[in-house]
Amino acid sequence: MTKKILILFFILIPINVNALIEVDITRGNLNPLPLAVSPLSIDEDSRKVFEKILKKENIGSEISNIVENNLRISGLFNPLDKKAFLQAPDIANLKPRFEDWNLIKAQALITGKVNYVDDKLRVEFRLWDVLAAKEMMALAFTTVPKNWRRVGHIISDKVYERLTGEKGYFDTRIIYVSEEGPKTQRIKKLAIMDQDGANNKFLTLGNELVLTPRFNPASQMVTYLSYFKNMPRVYLLDIETGTQEVVGDFPGMTFAPRFSPDGKKIIMSFAKDGKSDIYTMDLENRIVEKITNHPSIDTSPSYSPDGKYITFNSDRSGYQQIYVMKNDGSDVKRISFGNGLYGTPVWSPRGDLIAFTKLHKGKFYIGVMRTDGSGERLLTENYYQEAPSWSPNGRVLIFYRETKTNSKGEGFSAKLWSIDLTGYNERQIKTPTDASDPSWSSLLSN
Amino acid sequence: MRLNKILKNTLLVLMACVALTACATKKEVSNVEISGQMQGDVYTGTDTVEYLADGVPDRVFFATNESILTTASRETLRAQAAWLRKNPGINVVLEGHADERGTREYNLALGERRANAAKDYLMTYGISSDRITVLSYGKERPVDSGSNPLAWSKNRRSVTVKAN
After folding, report:
1. B79: domain CATH number?
2. At the top level of CATH, which class does the domain A8-20+31-164 belong to?
3. Which residue of B97, B106, B133 to mutate against A (max A Cβ within 10 Å)?
4. How far apart are CA A156 and CA A149, in angstroms?
5. Which of A46, A354, A386, A389 has the fewest C-beta atoms under 10 angstroms from its C-beta?
6. What's A173-247+310-440's CATH class?
7. What are the residue boundaries of the structural domains of chain A, listed by start?
8. ipTM higher than 0.95?
């Protein structure tokens, strides 16, 4: 799949000026920052070359469309209509006439240009503070032409980071389960796409049931559950080479896999004799360790980002609740005490929160709580939704939602949705088929 | 006298209320019983049931979040055990399932627990564990695609399937 990416960064003019525009992302943003994304300018010769190679009439406009779309979807920015722009892209990139951009109420402006240089795509862009009439950032990238979408995502990440003070999450991918067919006989395939839904690819053929794929935070490996030969087992998949292997040699069902933050271990459940316990397997030396030992169901384990703690789901109290323990299984503490059942805990990459699914009075909620269980906040309520996965910056959750069927059992669908940690900006993520079990990758470039 | 009359009337009204309430409750219960499909929230119908042999139903049903065998389930499993003893060459897979109202991972574990409850019972009636394989499907293979309590009750099940 996506291969080594040759992206060279060189900072043209590093400027760090105080008191420039900032976007506060800790609150629900009801007034997204108005900003203008000027199409990247392109000389006619370069335009023709890229049209031939990439089948895109104007690659400069295409890249700026990606940036515009990403920033809009974040909910923090309001990209203005290009028709209102007064200044031509090439001139704006040299020196914006700030009065013109101020006139259309743009507070920030993104300009840039694209060249064809030595068989490569070279893109430079600048971020301007319109009110302060100053350049905030200028960067250039050189890469192979087919990486053009990623250039758009990387620009988006840089702009997001410069304006919010936090890393972006646009140059990322989502792995998920594609679903087709009637509810009683769903065909499920592993699928992967860019965070914005582009470049969708199916990774399995649908011959066997597959569930719960999760990215390795440190590489482009995936762990998931497959019913290959009708034996539900945790597998490891290298999405670059397509090689798959079963994880460990367990005499029964292994499920609910996730990687450790360093990517060196897989943590999962092993079910035997009506009990499910949590195990880890070291991927280098293949050593298996039993982490929990309880007659209850212990499942859905997830490491804290420093690897020192594990949160998991257990019904040892009689019902599904969320627990936290040390990574060796000691010091088990229940953290969920609200009304209802709690499942699928997943530790935020920032370390401060645990996202979960809650079932209460026939409704399903996606929520977050602090790692000691305090400060529970429910972000969204629905007939059925579960399995949140964090964006790598810990600001957005992706999950799946299923619809209620009608009296004839028709009308079932499963879709991916995302929501901001603030509870705002809930969006459906379009997929070619029905979809479930999403997992968000780390940033591809860092 | 007058007070007495008032009290009497009040009492009558109260009694009428009680009678009405009782009626309503009774009606609800009888509805469930008449439909003959559920007791508590355990499925008791036969719509989805197949037979391993004459008089040997292939599946047992469970209450929400439970893996306890009901009296009817134990009866079904005793019939299965008797049939397995008569057919020593047959091995079985016990397929455990959950309804759609739970998280996927927990439901996988719950399906395994339900199938194991059935397995344990077969074993106490003399069936060797060598002949039994347990396989959980969680909520992945519902028999009824409905989003209502009756559909969910049909889906909370352990099904005994011939393996050979």
Report:
1. 3.30.1330.60
2. alpha beta
3. B106
4. 11
5. A46
6. mainly beta
7. 8-20+31-164, 173-247+310-440
8. no
Tens of pLDDT, residue by residue over A385-426, are 999 999 999 999 999 999 999 988 899 999 999 999 999 999
pLDDT at A121 over 70: yes
What is the model's pLDDT at position A220?
Answer: 79
Minimum mean pLDDT range among A92-96, A216-220, A306-310, B64-68: A216-220
Enter the tokens of residue A236.
Answer: 């490891």
Q: What percent of chain A has pLDDT over 90?
A: 89
Q: How many residues does chain A have?
A: 446
- With a cut of 80, say whether residue A1 has pLDDT above it: no
- Residue B19 carries which side chain, given as an amino acid letter? A
Q: Can you tell me whether residue B52 is helix, strand or coil?
A: strand
What tokens appear for A193 in the block?
A: 């796409």
**Measured CA distances, B56 to A439, B77, B81 (Å):** 44, 8, 9
Chain A residues with CB under 8 Å of B151 CB are 409
Q: For A316-337, what is the HEC assignment?
A: CCCCCEEEEEECCCCCCEECCC
Q: What is the pTM of this model?
A: 0.90
Tell me the nearest-neighbour CA distance from B102 into chain A, angstroms.
Answer: 8
Among chain B residues, the shortest Cα distance to A408 is held by: B146
Closest Cα in chain B to A231: B135
Contact A417, A162 (CB under 8 A): no
Query: Across the interface, which of A211, A409, A437 has its CB nearest the CB of B146?
Result: A409
